[in-house]
Amino acid sequence: MNKNKDYLIYAVLIVLSVIGSLMYFNQPLADSDHYFGTTRFMQGKNTVIDSPWASRMLVPLIAAAFELVFGMSVAYSLLSILFYCLTSVLVYVFFRDFFKNKTIGFISAIIFATSLPLIAWGGRPLIETAGFFFLFLGIIVIEWCLKKGRFVDYIIIGFVMALAILAKDHNYILLKIVITQHAGYK
């Protein structure tokens, strides 16, 4: 019965995230054109990247594959929804484990899933939701892996941090979290 409650919680969070993200689905913002240009560069259609956010390569790379099927704007919007849903689940998992209380985890995830910035960015062709996803994934991996302290765990942390920084360059903050957490565990 306990596993069924978790599945119900995940389903509720995903439904809330999808409903929120559909409010602005496929509505580009000024930043969207920069990401589209980066995707076209990765596809070999542009010879120059003129984006001030060219360091955020992960989502444009994934969008380059989806663009062939869905078109550029919809590909980004679908990726935003996917990352929005996954981040809501990660927020639940993180706060559930941190406080050792499913109710607090669920309430935290609902607040996250229904917050205005996520609703405003969740279905738009942007990479904000990927940044949130990798930030939370990085925090969770750091928390879990540093407790073990094995060499392979540091490789996993480094890999997740690299993906996080490629998704959104502001995620370099994970490096500070690793350093401060590592100092606390020694």
Description:
The chain is mostly helical and 186 residues long. The protein is built from nine helices and no strands. It has helices at 2-22, 32-42, 58-70, 72-99, 102-113, 116-121, 128-148, 151-167, 173-185. The N and C termini lie far apart (39 Å).
Summarize the helices and strands and which ones pair or pack.
Elements lengths: L1 H21 L9 H11 L15 H13 L1 H28 L2 H12 L2 H6 L6 H21 L2 H17 L5 H13 L1
In short:
It is built from nine helices and no strands. It is mainly alpha-helical.
Descriptive tags:
0% strand; mainly alpha; 186 residues
Bin the strand percentage: under 5%
Total DSSP E strands: 0
Structural class of the helices, strands and pairings?
A: mainly alpha
User: How far apart are the termini?
Assistant: 39 Å
Mean pLDDT: 91
Rg on CA atoms, Å: 17 Å
Listing every helix as H and every strand as E from the N terminus to the C terminus, the arrangement reads HHHHHHHHH
Instruction: Outline the low-pLDDT stretches.
Output: none
Q: Please bin the fraction of helical residues.
A: over 70%
